[in-house]
Design goal:
mainly beta, 4-stranded antiparallel β-sheet, 1 helix, single chain
């Protein structure tokens, strides 16, 4: 769950599916989002902006895996753009169409 704001100032809690590559979501309170809309995402507890410093069109989350390792999850903050990256030392897991092209374009 993230807190998401639109450029209009409207905000909602955005509930995402935890599985990379599954792009369904719910908004609470309900809010209709338009494809192509760029949204801001924040931590719902401390209100920290979750935007990636290195990839400005992506949200960046730290994931602590059960095996004790850590990875970074990057996903697009452009509504309707299904792009997700799991960043580890090898940058091996990519989800969504055209992911390699988008990542190399912002490097």
């Amino acid at each position: 769950m993230l807190t998401m704001t639109r450029t209009t100032g409207e905000k909602t809690n955005l509930i995402l599916h935890p599985q990379p590559g599954v792009y369904g979501y719910y908004c609470n309170p309900p809010l209709a989002l338009d494809d192509g809309e760029l949204v801001e995402c924040y931590c719902p507890y401390c209100w920290e902006n979750l935007g990636s410093e290195n990839f400005p069109n992506f949200v960046s989350l730290k994931l602590h895996k059960l095996d004790g390792s850590n990875v970074k999850v990057l996903f697009s903050r452009l509504v309707g753009q299904h792009k997700t990256f799991i960043v580890n030392e090898e940058f091996t897991e990519k989800y969504g169409e055209g992911s390699k092209k988008i990542l190399s374009a912002v490097s």
